[in-house]
Amino acid sequence: MAKRIFYFLLTNILVLTTITIIFSLTGAGSYIDENGIDFGALLIFSAIIGFTGSFISLLMSRWMAKKMMNVQVIDPNGPMSNQERQIVEMVHRMSRAAGITKMPEVGIYHSPEVNAFATGPSKNRSLVAVSSGLLQEMDDAAIEGVIAHEVAHIANGDMVTMTLLQGVVNTFVIFLARIAAFVVSRFVREDLAPVVHFIAILVFQIVFSILGSLVVFAFSRYREFHADRGGADLAGKDKMTHALRSLQAYTHRIRDEQDSAIATFKISGKRKSSLFSTHPDLNERIRRLEAK
Predict the structure, then answer these.
(1) Which helix (H) or strand (E) holds 254?
(2) Residue 110 has pLDDT above 70, yes or no
């Protein structure tokens, strides 16, 4: 679910910022001459850094998710509870059905939220993690549908495709951030220009990265429909639909509780724009799946 995208984007921004600082301090990748910006050199520089940052983020994605979510990876050959064994068997069964040759790592993280995610640099180095809240709130059929959906993400290679897209986005982010920083640095004293230019690069890069994430979010929403169809193929259409309806019922219940609390404090809340959502509307997902 959304965790997969969030940690990938967070890692990407941190990696890009780190690379930018290193290159700026060492003076590597110069693209400014006596005539101003060499746009050809800047574009090549931006593409190299952009795709490098994206692929480093991909390689770190599984490790980052486990550390930040405190995922407890289940040893399939060690002692397990009945529930852990059931989850591992579900993931392995779905993975084999999807044609994945090396089984994903399976983990549980303690959180009251109803959530699950799949991540990893490749089909053979992946992770499927579910929250303790999901295991408590959903029945076995819904859990199977959720796991099938996440395995479908792995089988579809969504993380690799997203990495390529993020590389393109990064290239434009770096390119535009440096042009904007160069323009800003022209408006200050010559002795301050290098410092202003350096700071402006970092600020514009973060701002443009956030704006660029809208493209990644849109891609994520598009791929969710494919993962729903893949989940239906793996677990059965009824179980996949049941999982979405269970998530919808949980979401409505939580939303009603939040609205009640907001009303108590007389605070007017607004819904988050769909542009910033990693997942499409549940009603639309259910409608498309039932029409399949």
Answers:
(1) helix 237-264
(2) yes
pTM, full prediction: 0.83
Catalytic residues: 150
> Is residue 274 in a domain?
no
SS (H, E, C) 261-284: HHHHCCCCCCCCCHHHCCCCCHHH
Which residues, other chains included, contact 112 with Cβ-Cβ below 8 Å and sequence gap of 6+? 131, 132, 133
Cα–Cα dist 185/208, whole Å: 18
Look at residues 225, 240, 248, 224 and name the one whose alpha carbon lies nearest to residue 1. 224
Q: Which domain holds residue 156?
A: 2-253+280-291
- Binding site: residue ranges? 149, 153, 224
Residue 151 located in a structural domain: yes
Total of domains in the chain: 1
* Phi, psi angle pair for 70, to nearest 5°: 55, 50
pLDDT digits over 163-179, tens only?
Answer: 999 999 999 999 999 99
Q: Is residue 57 part of a domain?
A: yes
Residue 180 contacts residue 200 (beta carbons within 8 Å): yes
Q: List Cα–Cα distances, 38 to 31, 42, 105, in angstroms.
A: 5, 6, 46
Ranked by mean pLDDT, the top range of 189-193, 242-246, 269-273 is: 242-246
Binding residues for Zn(2+): 149, 153, 224
Q: Is residue 35 part of a domain?
A: yes
Token digits of residue 119: 């991540």
**Token pair for 239:** 């179980």
Q: Which residue has the tokens 């084999």?
A: 96
